[in-house]
Design brief:
Its cofactor is NAD(+). Belongs to the NAD(P)-dependent epimerase/dehydratase family. Pathway: Carbohydrate metabolism; galactose metabolism. It comes from Rhamnella rubrinervis. By secondary structure, the chain is an alpha/beta fold. It has one domain: Rossmann fold. The chain is 44% helix and 15% strand. The chain contains 12 helices and 13 strands. The strands form 4 sheets. It has a 7-stranded parallel beta sheet, with helices on both faces. Strand 5, helix 7 and strand 6 form a beta-alpha-beta unit. The longest helix is centred in the first third of the chain and has 42 residues. The N terminus and C terminus are likely disordered. Bound molecules: nicotinamide-adenine-dinucleotide (NAD). The site of nicotinamide-adenine-dinucleotide has 27 residues, from helix 2, helix 6, strand 5 and strand 7.
């Protein structure tokens, strides 16, 4: 009896155990199926499909670049830690391109080499567009170590992973801040790079690491040095939505829009006695649509063992006063302007010579009407008063 009972108990518990195992396997397969089939697209190379890793693709420029790549039938993986970007931008892209194998988002921090290595081992990338960075000059002077870590050290992590996993093309987001305060204008790619703030220095160091590495590698490298980026998607799908707490470090277009929306009481223009036509600083404003076009052209023209370095600007300087007038016109708001003393560290005039990129990549800026760029950006701002919403992660 004891024996029989034990045997029976054993049979029942065995059946329960088996049922549990089968159920678990079933649930596991059920759960895994969609992501496994999706990840297959991303984990294997496919003839005729170029798979681009877009770091920082939840951010302003990275999301616009991802949109353009997806529109041009590239396969895109976005890696972002959402410290500054918006998951809302990724959702917009996912809704526009829901086809399996078009877009995947991976939440990860590029400062974590293990996580980065895992991403590279599980995905078959053909190229990397490395946008992810903290990118405010003022903030970099207050938190220099954060900038060297996030920009320089993380670029090293990405580059090591690329080398280890045989990813052969890098398009790197650099900046005119690497030039510092050149004595002569316009800035060519040959102009000495003497950055004057941690942001520019960290980017210059990252460039140096890439250049040194490329000397003994067959990697194709394109370094793009952007000037001041403005505007947004002309079809109004994406925009620029920095975190409110970064407002004090913000860029001029954001400051103008905040003033136009009444979030800020007005706009502070710092310095009216520069040696420029109207006394205010002069900058080269490049529309984000043109900028991402330069990335696509850089990717198409990248060649193994070759490094291309290009300024991405319009070649035309506009004064802060001109910018403010264009912003007033675009928003239809008579923004209150306070003219203040110069801000230490600001240089009078910066604009690019874009002839190299025109000559070698057949790229030229087309959105060069400030008013039009700002009008497009303002339309998005007005219809997204809270940016992409509240779904952002904390830093
Ligand atoms: N906006 C400009 O005017 C300008 C000018 C010159 C160069 N750039 C360069 O362009 C790139 C993009 O700038 P942006 O204006 O789109 O900035 P952004 O802040 O909108 O986007 C940067 C993105 O990178 C992500 N990120 C930051 N650190 C990360 C990390 N450790 N791991 C993963 N993701 C991380 C952020 O969450 C964000 O989504 C930057 O490299 C910047 O230096 C920008």
């Amino acid at each position: 009896m004891d024996f029989a009972d034990t045997k029976r108990k054993g049979t029942i518990s065995g059946k329960i155990f088996m049922a549990a195992v089968v159920t678990t396997i079933f649930i596991f397969i059920f759960r895994q199926t969609p992501s496994s089939s999706t990840s297959n697209f991303f984990s294997h190379r496919e003839a005729g499909v170029t798979h681009v890793l877009v770091t920082g693709g939840a951010g302003y420029i990275g999301s616009h670049a991802a949109l353009r790549l997806l529109k041009d039938s590239y396969r895109v993986t976005i890696v972002d830690n959402l410290s500054r970007g918006n998951i809302g931008a990724v959702k917009v892209l996912q809704e526009l391109f829901p086809e399996p194998g078009a877009l995947q988002f991976i939440y990860a921090d590029l400062g974590d080499p293990k996580a980065v290595n895992k991403i590279f081992s599980e995905n078959a990338f053909d190229a990397v567009m490395h946008f992810a960075a903290v990118a405010y000059v003022g903030e970099s002077t207050l938190e220099p170590l954060r900038y060297y870590h996030n920009i320089t050290s993380n670029t090293l992590v990405v580059l090591e992973a690329m080398a280890k996993h045989n990813v052969k093309t890098l398009i790197y987001s650099s900046t005119c801040a690497t030039y510092g305060e050149p004595k002569t204008m316009p800035i060519t790619e040959e102009t000495d790079q003497l950055p004057i703030n941690p942001y520019g220095k960290a980017k210059k160091m990252a460039e140096d690491i890439i250049l040194d590495f490329s000397k003994n590698s067959d990697m194709a490298v394109m370094i793009l040095r952007y000037f001041n980026v403005i505007g947004s998607d002309p079809e109004g799908r994406l925009g620029e939505a920095p975190r409110p707490e970064l407002r004090e470090h913000g860029r001029i277009s954001g400051a103008c829009f905040d003033a136009a929306r009444g979030i800020m009481p007005g706009l502070k223009v710092k310095g009216t006695d520069y040696k420029t036509a109207d006394g205010t600083c002069v900058r080269d404003y490049i529309d984000v649509t043109d900028l991402v076009d330069a990335h696509v052209k850089a990717l198409a023209n990248a060649k193994p063992k070759k490094v291309g370095i290009y300024n991405v600007g319009t070649g035309k300087g506009r004064s802060v006063k001109e910018f403010v007038e264009a912003c007033k016109k675009a928003t239809g708001v008579s923004i209150k302007i306070d003219y203040l003393e110069r801000r230490p560290g600001d240089y009078a005039e910066v604009y690019s010579d874009p002839s190299k990129i025109r000559r070698e990549l057949n790229w030229t800026a087309r959105y060069t009407d400030l008013h039009e760029s700002l009008q497009i950006a303002w339309r998005w701002q007005k219809s997204h008063v809270n940016g992409y919403g509240t779904s952002r992660a904390t830093a």
